[in-house]
Amino acid sequence: HRHNPHMAWRAVLALALACTPQYGRGAAAGGAPPLSCDRSGATPRVVYNCSGRQFIRIPWDVPADTDVLLLNTNLIAVVDNRSLTSLGTLSELHMDGNRITTIQPGAFANLTSLQELHLRSNRLTAIET
Known about the structure:
Number of helices: 1
Distance between the termini: 65 Å
Number of strands: 7
Radius of gyration: 17 Å
Shape: globular
Strand content: 5-15%
Structural class: alpha/beta
Low-confidence stretches: 6-30
Largest sheet: 5 strands, mixed
Strand order of the largest sheet: 1-2-3-5-7
Helix content: 10-25%
Mean pLDDT: 79
Order of helices and strands: HEEEEEEE
């Protein structure tokens, strides 16, 4: 039985990509959590914990029925005006301890149920309106 170095390299690459949040495949049907996020709580309060996952952007596949989204201690620098558009039921957004420098105009426009926004320990100097 001979060792094939090409097969070992492919296995390492596949494992590295599978463990890297920004290369996630997205949520599966049926309300599965985004890659590397944990769901806790039951209806009517749906909580997704995506904290400490080294995300560089807000995950695009957070389920629309999410009530609380925890994105603390990641590497997010920009809150763009498209990332949160499908989260109309979101009541709490926690983004403490990121690298946020920019919040684009309209980033929170569709968050009509938002009651709490946590942005401590970021790099914000201004918020454009």
